[in-house]
Specification:
40% of the residues lie in helices and 17% in strands. It is α/β, with parallel strands linked by helices. The chain has one domain: Rossmann fold (3-Layer(aba) Sandwich). It has a five-stranded parallel sheet with strand order 2-1-3-4-5, with helices on both faces. Helix 1 crosses helix 5 and helix 2 runs parallel beside helix 3.
Amino acid sequence: MITTQKLLKILLVEDNPDDVLLIKIALEKEGLKNEMFIARDGEQAVDFLNKEGEFTKAPTPELIILDLNLPKKDGLSVLKIIKANPELKVLPVIIMSTSANPDDIQKCYKEYANCYIRKPSDIQEFFKIIRNLKSYWLDTVILPSLD
């Protein structure tokens, strides 16, 4: 297992404050040292990634956790923008959504999502998913750095 010493920059694109809190708590519980940035809608996420508006000094994240059902610009549109950008397309994008619709899943993979996780309603299952996410994406693989 690789131990990350530096702070991992994560962009969480999530409009549900309860899910934001759960993800933060779960990652903390797993001992992940991270610098988490929150975008509450799709437009904020795009501005953050493009360093526009209030985000001109935003760092480039090393990992993106993206909800699909977002206000202003949905997650699939955000995913398309990320993967169409030559500088951002290498960033791992984890889709985390309540949708189990096969069409949503297929569309995300067609747009080069790195994985698709359905948010469980059970809190213990939610923590298990975050633990597995951390184990694979943060302890096992080597993530790109663009800064």
